[in-house]
Every structure is written in C-alpha cells, then in structure tokens.
C-alpha cells in the first residue's frame, strides 16, 4: 500500500433534525464541495445505498445504545451482513466501522458509557474478515477526557479507571492497523478544561499566550491536544500509531464565543494547518480529519449543553453559515448551497402580547421550549438580546415550525397568532423550516426514491 502523503478532510453527518435534508442532496453537497469522505453517526442502513457509485468513502457507526446488536458472534455476523456487506455489494464504499461513541467519556457522553466496546469490536472485526471485508477498519472514538488532566502534553496519560480498557483497545488497534480516533472540541477544552484565553483555540493566536513543553512550543490548543493523546499512546508502547481526528468543530450558538465569526476564523486557520501536512511537534506528517458537522440538529438530545445542536457548518435548511474551503486551497468562498430545498410558507407564529395572565404565558413558553429548540435564547446566544415578548414569540415560532406550521398549534391557549411579517431582528433569525425528505416522499401519487 502506498504511503499517504496528503491529509484528507471529511465531514460528519447526523440526522437528528425535525427538517432532514434529502440524502441525495447530501451526496450532491459532498461532490460539489470536493468532500471525499462522510462519517455517519449511525449505521445508516436506511440511506447508505444512496452513496452507491459515488466513490465517497463512508464511515458508519454502531452507537453505544445499540451495542447489544453485535455483542455475540452470531449477532455481529448478522449486523455486518446487513449494515456493511449488503451495501458494499451494491456499490457503497464503506471503509470504516466505528464501534461506540466516546464509550469511556466522563463528560460529554457520560450517560452513554459502555464497557463492552472492545469485545464488540473484536466480534465485528472477525465477521468483516470472514466475509472478505478485511480492508474495512474497525475502531472506536475517544474524547480528550480519556486522559488525566495535565497542563503540558508530555505529562499526559490515560485515566486510571479506564487504563486497562484503553491498553486492551490500543493493543487491538495496533494488531489490526486501525487508527486512534480522537474527538476534539477546542472551544470547550480551552474554556472549560484548561481555562486559558480563548485566543489559544485559534491558529492565528493574537495573544502572547503559549505553552512550553521541553523543546516544543505550543501556540494553539489543537496541536497541544493531539500531542497530549500522542504522549499517552507512546507511554502505552505504540509511538507509531496513527491518530485520526474523528470529529472537530466549532459551534455557532449556545456557548461563550460560539458564533459564526469565530467558527469561520477557526476553520480557516485549522484547514491551512491540515493542508500543510506538517503535523504536530510530536506527530509530524499528514492528519486525516472529519469536520463536525454537516448541519445543525435541533432534535439532538443534549448531554452537556444546547450548543450541541449547533455544530453545523450548514443550517438545517441547507444554507451555509460561513465561508470555508473544504478543498484545502484556502479560497475565500462559501460552500455550495443545498439544491432542491423546499421551504414551508413564509409565516411565523408569534406572541399576541396578551400579558393579563403571566402564569399562563410562562406555562406556554416553557411548554414550547421543552419540545422545540430554544438554544438561541440562552445567555450570550444570538437571540439573548430580545425583549421578553419577542423571546416568547421566538419560542412559540420554533415550536410552530417544528410541528410543520399546523395552524391549530399556534394557539397556545389563545396567546399565539400567525403573521406573514418576518419578526427576525439583528442577528436573531426566526426560522422557517424546510419540507423534509419524508414530507416529499410522495408526489403526484408516486413514491419517490430517497
């Protein structure tokens, strides 16, 4: 096999949205933007065939809550046959299976922790090999919280409570040639873990802040994070193990410094770094990376914060949020807009400003936000500056849109009304959702292929 000389940039795609993009649109977005690889955050069995013949490299995921589907040899064979072999036989280019998502996390994914991941990986690996799919890699993803907290990379090591499982995983990855799959979110690591200046998250760090670790100097957190993991892997006895960035992103709402401007700035510097193929001080050379993620997910069950719904480079309706050049040519361009989008009518549900019974108003406001995504109303978010009445309107509207603009669902005990006048203001957009591929599946009495 030829030695890789250049990094590649793929993207993740989750489908926890009330307005899902048609899968064929996603294929078109990847092709138009020269994105060669996609990581599905599910097994994707219901849509993977749409990638047949595209040559897009596909990574599928067996999520933590469904480990039972492959926790025995016979179950693993069935899972691999259904989710990998059948699509491959139909021309789908599946190259990786990720078993579990941060299974040893004690922060972001702590509610989904599982200790059976290594056994499941081994069962799936055996099934792949027996079915002639030995080229399909098997790994799992790990966040930075598998490490003990340290200030400099050379002191990094795996947490004591998971050390045994991590060493077992590394031994298996080394045997099978699989990479260490690293999930990293610089905005969180700088702000919450290290408590450093946010400038340290950017490659064009405008501050004097830097970290000295022996002969290595770190002026940005990304290289520090990668090398921290590299040191832990080195101490385990595998200095040459490849580290792949399975997810890295910058949210645009619901968190301090989470906005469009900072996301664009981060990606511009990060992708120039990836394009250079120089690697990090401890791990020189090309780095494979999946950007997180293609589009926002307003139905994502947030574990750490509502910002987890706003990782998308695209809005849920297929509109790009900011400039980014996936081709690694550092062009000052917006990515291609999704084609074929059908929006619902230009109408919004707003509060009629009847404040006679504020208990009833608050009850309906809380009801709307418990079901719909009110992230933009949180402190420091894009709609935080709205008046109280406008915040109530925002909540009513996101609920109304999520319910496909059903007129009766803008009642809110007589407190809501429908308007054709856009209530958006400043940076706060009152969304209108799109028709999903499920909504468009039937046209002129015919079932459309999705």
Which short descriptors sum up this protein?
14 strands, 28% helix, alpha/beta, 9 helices, 14% strand
In short:
With 450 residues, the protein is α/β, with parallel strands linked by helices. It is built from 9 helices and 14 strands.
Structural features, described:
The C terminus is likely disordered. Strands 1-2-3-4-5-6-9-10 form an 8-stranded parallel barrel, surrounded by 4 helices. The protein has a two-stranded antiparallel sheet with strand order 7-8. It contains 9 helices and 14 strands. Helices cover 28% and strands 14% of the residues. 45% of the residues are buried. Helix 2 crosses helix 3. The radius of gyration is 23 Å and the shape is globular. By secondary structure, it is an alpha/beta fold.
- H/E series, N to C? EHEEHEHEHEHEEHEHEEHHEEE
> Ranges with pLDDT <50 over ≥5 residues?
440-450
Mean pLDDT: 90
Assembly type: single chain
Q: What is the terminal separation in angstroms?
A: 36 Å
Q: Using the alpha-carbon principal axes, give the shape.
A: globular
Organism: Nicotiana tabacum (Common tobacco)
Protein name: Glucan endo-1,3-beta-glucosidase 8-like
